[in-house]
Amino acid sequence: MDPVTVLVLSLSFLLLLSLWRQSSGRGKLPPGPTPLPFIGNFLQIDMKNIQQSFTKFSKVYGPVFTVYFGQKPTVVLHGYEAVKEALIDHGEEFSGRGKLPALDKVFNGFGIIFNNGNTWKDLRRFSLTTLRNLGMGKRSIEDHIQGEAQCLVEELRKTNDSPCDPTFILACAACNVICSIVFQNRFDYKDKDFLNLLKKMDENTKILSSPWIQVCNTFPALLDYCPGSHNIFYKNHTCVESYFLEIIKEHEESLDVTNPRDLIDYYLIKGRQENCKQELKYTLQNLLVVLSDLFGAGTETTSTTLRYALLLLLKHPHVAAKVQEEIYHVVGRDRSPCMQDRRHMPYTNATIHEVQRFIDIVPNSIPHAVTCDVKFRNYLIPKGTTVIASLSSVLHDSKEFPNPEMFDPGHFLDGNGNFKKSDYFMPFSAGKRICAGEGLAQMELFLFLTTILQKFKLKSLVPPKDINITPVARGLVTVPPPFQLCFIPV
């Protein structure tokens, strides 16, 4: 038998074996494109824009379908009805956390975001309770954000009308809000250690959203044996973790169990109370990852959304003008904006919601997993199967948002110009795994953006028609293109 025949027969055998394995012993998974042995649907998925590939598959296989990243099946939920039915109506069954090998390698199932089971529930409950005790959702944290907004304004004034990249100025403001809760401290916008921390976090966000990391998540062996940007991510993560360890050490040395100052103190006290139990949850490793979770979610997503908001307002100056007009009418030019103003500012509220809808900050959410064998729409999804909820498909639903690819605050306004809520607004995901900091993020976005627009006119370096708003990456998060602008005091 000649070598070519042997090769053809071998490949045919592997293909048949792969198809048999997928059709037997896996329940009745939803339909999907036929995977190849070992590589699955890799050749059919655009790693630069996975969401676009999902949209194409949904037109062929419907709103619930299966794709293979390598040899592992992943069920994709596409569209509002499927996402709602799974994450909300069957929230408990779909509340597991799916695998992301590039991140699992460092977080290893610790913390809040990438944890599972009772430990996840306990740490999430502890974090939410502690954050509320420290002011989240209360007037005290609003006062702090207002104060930080004034610090942000002063920093922007120092640009002296000159072109600047707002990336790290906005990141400093957002991060200081988290620091005040976690560390009971804020940092100067020129603090070198603080800026170095933010730069590493920003670099890691870009790396995690790159096509290379999507490839590594499909073929995890690459993480151990190939060079690439994932090694920079791990190096940066080690530096950030060392930074947190120093702060934890300082807290341990000065801890007063009768007077906790911040989240770290509350955690350390909880850990001491737990020492007599067999199952330890409040370990140092869990604390390190909880801090990473809070900083990553509380700094990067909020500052990136603010940055994208400024870019979109430069692109659509008529929207910026209408927002400023509403700010001056409701708030005036001197008083600091407050959350009570939002109910009287429908256009501004609609604009901020439209920014979040349009930019689609986390296109496919963070992968879920089913916690048990689940019968879903006449399919049987086995326990542990990874599930991806396409938030992008919900936020860009043309029935709910006419012309969804257009930036239009009118998507959140009724015929009388009043703010209109939408069940399709899911930038923070939905169900049991919804972002714990949603309320804090919404407060920051409103107070920071209205304070900036109250004090400055945004000036672009190029005509609006030439402004590029296409993201440079759409992986774990959506990353806006780099840009500069001038903040002109008014």
From TrEMBL:
Its cofactor is heme. Its EC number is 1.14.14.1. Keywords: Endoplasmic reticulum, Heme, Iron, Membrane, Metal-binding, Microsome, Monooxygenase, Oxidoreductase, Signal. It comes from Mesocricetus auratus. This is unspecific monooxygenase. The keyword Cell cycle does not apply. It is an enzyme of class 1 (oxidoreductase). The lineage of its organism: Eukaryota, Metazoa, Chordata, Craniata, Vertebrata. The keyword Endoplasmic reticulum applies.
